[in-house]
Amino acid sequence: MFLFDRDSSHSRQSLTHKYYKLLDVPLNASLVDIKTKFKKKAFVYHPDKGGDPTKFALLREAYEVLSNPKKRSFYDQHGDAGLEHLQETEQPRRRATTSSIVMTLPLGEFYSGVEKKMPYSQTVICMNCAGKGSRSTISCTNCSGTGIAETAYRVGPMVFKNHGTCGVCSGSGESFPSGDRCSECLGQRVVRVQKELDVFVKPGTPTGHRLTFVDAADQEPGRDTGDLVVVLQEEPHSVFSRFGDDLVASVQVSLATALCGKATPLELLDGQYITIQPPPDYIIKPGTIGSIPGKGMPCYNREGRGMLYLKFEIDFPENLPPRSRQLAKLILPDDESTKTSLSEVVTWTVASSKELPQSQSQHQEEGVRFFSPGEDDIEGCRQQ
To answer: Which of 257, 314, 322 lies closest to 287, judged by CA?
Structure first.
């Protein structure tokens, strides 16, 4: 048995109570006050929000002690030394599984940053029965109160035995009469509640980034609550595509703009407009790529912005009035005029992409045979 010296060096008045100071709560703080203070400080010091990982680890350690009635009572009476002995002698509790959910955001919110509420559903210990499932409990008859059940199965002449978590009591070692079930959880020990997470996304946060919320996963009786991980994903954008810190914008310009170098307005992801201007005397061709430094995504957790690339697409007119067509012929060079005067003139008609020949593999799947230039091919031509 571990005995504590009751002299002044270990008296309650001389204890430092560093955990209370870390969370900035009084010695008589309620569990609600402790949770509220921890959430506020965790929001500031969490590494995902640019906080100090060491400071966050200390805050979490303080919260795990002060939110546990047994640990808190021992800490209040005996300080750090008593708490260390308690942790050495007590059976460690298993931690519930860490779970994850996906949160999809528009690309503009990754660009500008956002703070928003995310509703989610969490399984919590039933407060009506304190996670017991009923008003009274008895030792589980299936596992004799151990929480571990034995199952046997036969393979041929051999009989194998397997030990695992009892399926009747879910490993708690306790059971209860069916007529004494809790009216709130119906004997399940847990209930489902709707909650909200305060999600803070910094400008330039990468897609796939993971935000960890301490003790926000589903609760399980007899286990410490696990963490909930929110994985950030971005929605596709109609104009912009993201590549790390860089952005690629698909810019449609008129034929007049492409030929004459007119300025074009472009709305950025934050709603601001810039005017993009080609180099002097430059003619924009289909597939032309332009670049603008410092107009891409904000760099995550550092200064600066990436590149903005412009991928131009030219919107050709459906037709031209006769006078405009004549002016275009006079203005635009015609390098093919000498060749057309010596060749047969064939007028083509407008077709769609669906009319194009399919790939060889597609034709082969449909039973169409392709010939390579050879005798069979030549003979086939001769017979036509």
So the answer is: 314
Q: Hey, what amino acid is at 214?
A: V
Range scoring the smallest mean pLDDT among 10-24, 118-132, 218-232, 337-351: 337-351
Query: Which range has the worst mean pLDDT, 244-253, 268-277, 309-318, 347-356?
Result: 347-356
Residues 53, 76: one domain?
A: yes
- Domain containing 43: what range? 8-89
Q: Do residue 119 and residue 200 come from a single domain?
A: yes
Could you give the CA distance from residue 55 to residue 63 in angstroms, rounded to a whole number?
Answer: 12
Residue 213, pLDDT above cutoff 80 = yes
The answer to whether residue 147 is domain-embedded is no
In a domain, 154, yes or no: no
Please indicate, yes or no, whether residues 251 and 312 belong to a single structural domain of this protein. Answer: yes
Q: How far apart are CA 26 and CA 22, in angstroms?
A: 11
The answer, yes or no, to whether residue 72 has pLDDT greater than 50, is yes
In this prediction, residue 5 carries a pLDDT of 44
Residue 121 to residue 348: CA distance in whole angstroms: 62
Burial (0-12, 13-18, 19+ Cβ within 10 Å), 179:
exposed
Residue type, 210: R
Residue 108 and residue 215 in one domain? yes
Q: Based on the domain organization, do 84 and 118 belong to the same domain?
A: no
**Interval 82-93: pLDDT, tens:** 666 666 555 556
DSSP secondary structure code for residue 355 in this structure: G
Confidence of residue 348 (pLDDT cuts 50, 70, 90): low
Dihedral sign from CA coordinates of 120, 126, 130, 131: negative
CATH number of the structural domain spanning residue 25: 1.10.287.110
Q: Which of 233, 262, 280 is the endpoint of a domain?
A: 233
Check: CB of residue 12 under 8 Å from CB of residue 76.
yes
Q: Please indicate, yes or no, if residue 337 is contained in any of the structural domains.
A: no
Instruction: Supply the DSSP string of 204-257, one letter for each residue.
Output: TPPTT-EEEETT-S---TTSB---EEEEEEE---SSEEEETTEEEEEEEEEHHH
Domain count, the chain: 4
CB distance 235 to 245 below 8 Å? no
Residue 235 pairs with which residues in a beta bridge? none
H-run or E-run covering 44: helix 31-45
